[in-house]
Amino acid sequence: MQQETEYGQQAFTPSAEDLAGVEAWFAEYDALAARGAVREIADLAVFPLNLATDVPGGFAAVRQWDREEFIQVMTEVMGGGTGDMEMKSVRTPHFLTSNLVLVETEATVVVEGRRQSMRYADLLVRTTDGWAFQTMVQGGWGHGWPPATRG
């Protein structure tokens, strides 16, 4: 639902159906991740995929991945899936418009008794086929990446 703001811009307030659509997208993503179904996860993305992270002890780093690079990296990261992990996520969608939603995730993962907390965000875009992720933002992935530069 579009609303007029004091600046004359349109603000979007999501409906229950809008929120349910994003929740359903993440339920599908989580189920695929649990199985390690990286190629099917790639089907839920728009490429090139934007990534923003940071270089530990340094600055921000950004990249774009094509489908093949995403599959290669995520296969290494996910291995046989995340089903053996205990993962709890709290996701907070921030709808920019009816077609753009930034979703902040606070997650806790327990692997072999070790607990790790993380925060990340995804930009989902509404496509003709439904929601897709287009940008991933999470700290700590930039090992070996060059720092971002302006201009």
From TrEMBL:
In Swiss-Prot or TrEMBL terms, this protein is called: SnoaL-like domain-containing protein
